[in-house]
Structure to design on (661 residues):
């Protein structure tokens, strides 16, 4: 299935002046769309598709692939600097990226994010290059029971992600699940908690809630405290330390590799998306790294984990999209549309008839990662200056951009209302020590958990399939081990200490 | 601060209880998750409130988890005033957008905010900055993306 000559052909097309120029333009557009809250890689693709009508399909894929590939890194920049993820998959980056900015180390965080993104992206695409035919079976092995187990595993992460007391984390997670029930019941089409409001029929969308909880909550806090993000103390420029971030990431190559693998695997499963990938690897890093007490308070390893995973997932997401025509995310659905528009037949035959386009797509995303990292590293020092600006200047502009971004998602004022409500809720939660990320996780996974659970019960095997299907059972065991691991290790440490004292 | 937290917790409890009770009206399969999650949240909130009113419960829980339950930001009097003002500005921003639409609300809000809240005198900040932001929004959203931005209630009524 792997054709070296076709790869060389795609590479030769990419490495022409025209190819590099197209890729550069795509990368810049992707970076800008990724960095503006509310716009995303999907919007970039939608804007670019009409421009590709007259293009050669291979060059068209080069443009689209590079825009898509650069958007994820673009989203990390506002996540680190202003606690506002440019795209939902960058949500986990704020956990440590923004605290690093508050410590005046935004340069380091941006450097680490750029390097981890590139490494994760490269890993995901290289695995996709060589293993697409082999991994196709994984997509088909996932059914409702596996989805439920994955979401349960995701919800169990609340315990790890909670910074304050676990009780408050559980309440926040429960609230998130409750809010995920708003809207049409996916199985019976019954309306729940819509109060006659049409915009609630489709439920509470994650992105407006995300903007409210993280961005608006932070804007309020900055305006009340009146201090710049990086504070006023410290002589070191916040943008310095970019290379420290790069070196930290290179030093932790094994962590990057592990998190990239998680990201790739999550990407392969349609419907889970980059947000879940980011959180999964963040939790993995927190649970497996030594001296993990600093996670959530500005540990660069948190940024590395999240960014490596959400870029690696792109390689994985291409697998169900190209191989089966099952888009794993909104961006993949748009990309699928673009491929069809250019007369590319989706399905297993794509690997025979249009392998040049597949390789060009993978190469363009790969090239975009390298371009985006270069641009990101070059501009990191300048971008970091935003953390020293007085909040009263940039926060009202950011507020308006967030509200505009919420509106443009579905052209609905209802989403603006949701952003404001979640903004006020997010501020209060922040003030009283509730985990906003736990609420977000509940909102994100509640819907999938409910649908998967009820669909599993409707199958012939019913609830037994949770235990009879090997992948489902493995994930369940993994969840239990992951939950009990901190307690078991603490118990073993205590026993050892007692033993040594004796 | 404790009183404020109590009010917030009672508000959340009210939301959880109302949502749980409302779930009883749904069909048996539709109510499963909302009812279970609502009950779970309500029970946890009652327990959290109990730790506020009964110190021995709080002590027991802190020993159990090994972390402090009440981790809250303490605000100064000036910060408290700003908190109310900022909440007002947020709601004001929404009302402006709702009434006048994005393209009018953005410059108006930014001008008013810079002038009245942030107390800037510089014409560059109060007039030029809102102008630049509006221009960028116009070019990005209307010219390039062709997004039909919300025009506002007033314009909808007039036109």
């Amino acid at each position: 299935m792997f054709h070296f000559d076709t790869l060389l052909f795609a590479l030769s097309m990419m490495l022409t002046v025209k190819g590099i120029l197209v890729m550069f333009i795509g990368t810049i557009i992707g970076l800008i769309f990724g960095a503006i809250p509310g716009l995303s890689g999907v919007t970039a693709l939608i804007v670019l598709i009409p421009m590709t009508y007259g293009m050669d399909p291979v060059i068209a894929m080069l443009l689209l692939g590079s825009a898509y590939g650069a958007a994820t890194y673009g989203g990390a920049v506002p996540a680190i600097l202003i606690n506002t993820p440019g795209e939902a998959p960058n949500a986990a980056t704020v956990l440590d990226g923004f605290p690093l900015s508050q410590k005046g180390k935004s340069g380091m965080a941006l450097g680490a994010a750029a390097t981890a993104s590139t490494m994760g992206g490269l890993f995901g695409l290289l695995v996709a290059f060589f293993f697409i035919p082999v991994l196709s079976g994984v997509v088909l092995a996932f059914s409702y029971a596996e989805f439920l187990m994955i979401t349960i595993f995701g919800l169990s992460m609340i315990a790890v992600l909670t910074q304050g007391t676990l009780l408050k984390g559980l309440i926040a997670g429960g609230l998130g699940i409750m809010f995920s029930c708003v809207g049409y019941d996916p199985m019976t089409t019954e309306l729940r908690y819509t109060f006659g409001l049409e915009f609630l029929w489709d439920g509470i969308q994650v992105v407006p809630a995300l903007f409210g909880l993280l961005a608006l909550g932070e804007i309020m806090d900055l305006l009340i405290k009146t201090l710049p993000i990086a504070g006023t103390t410290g002589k070191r420029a916040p943008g310095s330390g970019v290379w420290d971030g790069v070196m930290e990431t290179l030093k932790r190559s094994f962590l990057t590799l592990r998190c990239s693998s998680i990201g790739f695997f999550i990407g392969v499963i349609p419907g889970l998306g980059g947000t879940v990938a980011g959180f999964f690897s963040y939790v993995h890093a927190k649970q497996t790294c030594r001296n993990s007490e600093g996670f959530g308070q500005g540990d660069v390893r948190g940024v590395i984990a999240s960014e490596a995973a959400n870029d690696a997932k792109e390689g994985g997401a291409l697998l169900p999209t190209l191989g089966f025509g099952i888009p794993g995310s909104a961006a993949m659905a748009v990309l699928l549309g673009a491929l069809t528009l250019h007369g590319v037949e989706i399905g297993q035959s794509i690997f025979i008839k249009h392998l040049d386009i597949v390789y060009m797509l993978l190469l363009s995303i790969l090239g975009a990662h390298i371009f985006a990292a270069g641009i990101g590293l070059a501009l990191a020092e300048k971008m970091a200056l935003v953390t020293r600006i007085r909040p009263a200047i940039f926060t009202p502009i950011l507020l308006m951009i967030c509200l505009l971004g919420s509106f443009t998602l579905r052209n609905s004022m209802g989403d603006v209302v949701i952003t404001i409500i979640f903004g006020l809720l997010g501020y209060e939660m922040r003030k009283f020590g509730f985990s906003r990320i736990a609420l977000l996780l509940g909102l994100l996974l509640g819907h999938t958990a409910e649908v998967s659970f009820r669909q599993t019960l409707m199958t012939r095997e019913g609830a037994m399939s949770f235990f009879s299907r090997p992948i489902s059972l493995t994930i369940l065991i993994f969840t239990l081990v992951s939950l009990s691991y901190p307690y078991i290790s603490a118990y073993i440490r205590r026993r050892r200490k007692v033993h040594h004292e004796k | 601060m404790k009183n404020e937290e109590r009010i917030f917790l009672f508000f959340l409890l009210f939301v959880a209880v109302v949502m749980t009770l409302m779930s009883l009206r749904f069909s048996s399969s539709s109510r499963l998750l909302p009812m279970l999650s609502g009950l779970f949240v309500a029970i946890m909130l009652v327990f959290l409130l109990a730790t506020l009113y009964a110190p021995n419960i709080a002590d027991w829980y802190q020993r159990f988890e090994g972390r402090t339950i009440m981790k809250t930001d303490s605000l100064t009097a000036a910060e408290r005033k700003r908190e109310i003002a900022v909440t007002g500005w947020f709601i004001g921003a929404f009302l402006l957008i709702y009434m006048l639409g994005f393209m009018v609300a953005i410059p108006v809000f930014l001008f008013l905010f810079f002038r009245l809240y942030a107390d800037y005198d510089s014409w560059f900040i109060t007039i030029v900055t809102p102008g630049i932001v509006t221009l960028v929004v116009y070019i990005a959203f209307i010219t390039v993306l062709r997004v039909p931005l919300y025009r506002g209630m007033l314009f909808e009524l007039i036109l």
Notes: The first strand of chain A starts at residue 183 and ends at 184. The mean pLDDT of chain A is 83.
